[in-house]
Write the structure tokens for this entry.
Amino acid sequence: MNETFINISKIIERDSKNTTYKFALLRGTIDTILDNSPFILPVGDRVEIPLGLLVEKWIIYYYPILDSKVNIPQKYGTNNNLAFQEEFKPVIDFYNQFGGLSALYNDLRTKGISPSVHKEFFALVRKLKDTITKMPMRYIGGSIADSHYTIFKKHSNANLRQTPSQNAHWLINSCGTFTIPKDYYEAFKVLGSFVSGTDNILFKWAEFSVNASNALIDTPTAIHHILKSPITERDVAVAKSLYKTILEEKGKINCVWTGETIKNYDVDHLIPFSVWKNNDLWNLLPAKPSINNSKRDKIPATGLLLKQKQPIIHYWETICSAQPQRFLQEIQITLLGNKDNNNWQHTAFSQLLNTSKYLIETRGYTEWRP
């Protein structure tokens, strides 16, 4: 493991870089692993990850940079356009009419990319897929070995084709997979948040942009755009409206954590928003305000989750009956993966337990019990 950490440090510090692609590859891989995606699978001494998840991360990273009114160079040279910049522009222009990155992200995660920009979005995904696999995946690790595809390898190459629904599932199923060594996966899983923090990948990315601009921009400006997220607020309006309807129909609602009947309630992020910027409907449940305030940014203990399994699943089923398409799309991506939907409640709850345990035991977040 020590050798792995040394190699990661060498790659960040010493690998030759003409663009920010290597930073984006490392950051995207780490972020996908830290998301604890259910689509990540062990394959012998390596770990397999859907390339579509990485493509999604690159869309999120590069949209605000390419959309910025301030030039934030991502490549050295007089012609500093990125390989996929031409394909990205019509997608940015379209979604800027409807809310920008957040609108694109919401479409991708739920109902799918607008048919009005299907052709352009498909061309962007194809170009990103080719750029990632043929550029940074091929050359990353040059400082530790005199060969190509030292760490990242394409594992399967699914047939990317246009379909009526271009969403996150489509990305995952259509872009194939890649693998990394298991020891790199474990290193990213344990210390990935430090590796991709401002002292390393993000800072180096911003530093690169400042240098490439000949200091025409400053580091805070570059970091501001690089760190921009598609989730800009805790949008819980749909869940709050749903619970209000339940209250009107039943006259009461129970706190998911204590079981107490309550008339006033907060919509609690089951996995805290500060830990996992996730506003999926399954992650929004009613809680007594004082209980929600005591929970704050802590992770529910696995014992507590097991004790409250029945009310959690009850609320999931209630929300699903009211918003089936959105609910099932969201829970598939974050908790179910490729597992059978026939018994989705217990499969999703099992992954929730796994995520809670991972966040507490591996990531070091504080365990919470009411």
Summary: The radius of gyration is 21 Å. The longest strand covers residues 46-50.
